[in-house]
Design a protein that fits this description.
The protein has six helices and 16 strands. It is of the alpha+beta class and 299 residues long.
Amino acid sequence: MSNETKYKANDIELSYGMLDGELIHISEVKSGLAENCLCPKCGSFLVAKKGDIRKHHFAHYNFENCLGAQETAIHLLAKEILLQEKCVSLVSSETRDSPSLLRFDKLSTEVRGHGLVFDAVGYGEADDLAIEIKVTHEVDSRKREIVVNNGIRMIEIDLSEFLSCEFTREEIKHAVINSAPRYLIEEIQPTIQTTEDKDMINKAYIAGFKLASGYSRKNNCNFESNKIFILQPVENRSSTNYQVAACGGYEILELNIVDSPALIEKISSFSYPLEARLTVETAFQKTKCVPVVTDVNLI
C-alpha cells in the first residue's frame, strides 16, 4: 500500500456506524449521540455530525486514535452486500444484468481454508468462487501463491475508489456486484488434484467444542460461551519486529458458535475429532465484529 493510499484511508471521514449490530449510513441517523452508534473498527461511541458546511459524517466521541475506520466500514459493507445479494459479476460492468453475473445458491463470509481466510466464498451448482475485497490492501503474494497452486478460483474486487463518504449504500452495492474493477486470479490446476484438495477451501479439522455459561460480576449479567476448537497449520508469519525461526504442526483456533439450539444439538451429537465443512459469518459481539460458526456439516 502506498503512503498516499495509507494517508487517504486514515484521513477520510467516516460515513458508516454500527447500530444494534448492523451497519448504518450517516443519512439514516439524527445528528448527535442519541442513536448510540458505534465505530465499526474500535467499537467506541460515535457522534453524528450533520451541519450545514461540511459533508455529513460520523466522528469518534472522546477518542482520537482510531485510524482506518472508514476502510473497515467499507470492507464490512461489501461483505454484507455479498451475503444479501449472493451474486457477483466476473468482469466490471455498468449493466446490472451482466452476462458474466454469477448467482450462488449459498454464500459465506470469513471462510477458512489452506491456512487462509477468504472474505467470502460463493457456492454454486458448477463452481465455487472465493471473493476478496480490496479497499487499501490487495491480495498479498503469499495468498496469491497458495490460491494459484491449489487451483482455487478467486476474484478480487477493488473498492479503493469508494473510500469517500460521498458514496451511498446503493452506489457501493452496484460497485461490489457490477462496476468496480475486478480480476480473476488465474487458475492453475495442480498436476495431481485429489478430492481432499478440492474440499480444503471450506474444510476444518475440529478437535472439539465447549458449551458454557456463567455470571459476570463486572457486567452484572449472565453470559454464555459456546466455542468450537479447530486444528489449523501453524502459520509461519514474520514481520519487521517478529521473526519465526522454525515452526511445524498444528495450533488450536477458537471460534464462537451462533446461539442456535439446532446447531448446538447437531454438534453435541458428533464424535470428535472429525472433519467437517464450516459456515462462518461475521457477527457483531461486544462492540467487535467477529467470525461466528453458523453451521457444521460432516464430510
